[in-house]
Amino acid sequence: xxxxxxxxxxxxxxxxxxxxxxxxxxxxxxxxxxxxxxxxxxxxxxxxxxxxxxxxxxxxxxxxxxxxxxxxxxxxxxxxxxxxxxxxxxxxxxxxxxxxxxxxxxxxxxxxxxxxxxxxxxxxxxxxxxxxxxxxxxxxxxxxxxxxxxxxxxxxxxxxxxxxxxxxxxxxxxxxxxxxxxxxxxxxxxxxxxxxxxxxxxxxxxxxxxxxxxxxxxxxxxxxxxxxxxxxxxxxxxxxxxxxxxxxxxxxxxxxxxxxxxxxxxxxxxxxxxxxxxxxxxxxxxxxxxxxxxxxxxxxxxxxxxxxxxxxxxxxxxxxxxxxxxxxxxxxxxxxxxxxxxxxxxxxxxxxxxxxxxxxxxxxxxxxxxxxxxxxxxxxxxxxxxxxxxxxxxxxxxxxxxxxxxxxxxxxxxxxxxxxxxxxxxxxxxxxxxxxxxxxxxxxxxxx
Length: 448
Known about the structure:
By secondary structure, the chain is α/β, with parallel strands linked by helices. 33% of the residues lie in helices and 14% in strands.
């Protein structure tokens, strides 16, 4: 890693405390230290979601020298024997904290079905409205009385997978708060950082002219009306609506508003993450898990939202996206570690499937669910490992196939959640958090 890109723990703490540039007081660093030291702190999860399905052959499972390999070179990492793409040099230095699962496999080859399956762990068939992983983690590890919602999704692209961002039968109280829905399409800035503004939650401040006393009075009136309605017409829908409204009101408190304000960070920190929607989304994710949010999803899809869907011009597109990914993800790891939060934060990197080993006539790679890669790291994971192996040309899995339920069961285990626990569903029968066929990769999970 170039010396200019390296930051020590002391550097990060100085940035966090606002000692660089004098743009921030020390209260946030104290808050982070207190959160990290809390023995009762539950683990959070940050899902780095790659819209479109990233090429495993050009990121974490290269095949140099094979006709399928493409032009990218491998580089060594912090763990001897593990090599990844030359376009992920900073992540290579953090391989001791990451576990590469190179033998992922599924049967869902269209975007909509695959996005849903990987998020929920169940195929989208029949009347059951399965909740997304984020909603399940929010239910298990979220704090009920917190000002912030337990599940936040940053800059998702939902046109082909809206159900994958639903709480399903868990109800609206566990649905994600969506921020930066159009983060890749902001117009001319009216002042300040347009990306930071795109990642703020709208309508968190009262209308001009409304005093705090008036606002609190109106909230009390609404709360009273809701309580009377629920008492007279009890139902799951009414209770869920009441809870969602209460959480929205709590989000308007000062602590909730500040969580989404990236302008309060010292300038060098947003720069380090990358001044783009994904980099700033990773910074926001750190701010949210720091404040106890259970699950944050940050999407990277490039122009149009499905940039990893590289049916043509695969290599130039993957190179560009990898540079954004490398900067944001590596900085997130460093920032979490400096704040004492890495051991309580699980990071997951994946898309809906991989790309074909064979390169098509448009210099691209097509959908390939048969053998692809996911990455786990941070809290609960024994890093510096590779799970599974694909063939010399990447066409088949040679060692230890891992299903989507296997992966999600591993995520749950790392978060301290029993994947076999059941919740009542919309069809009246209990549904386990993860399909009972899923077997966690226990050898890469640290015991609590």
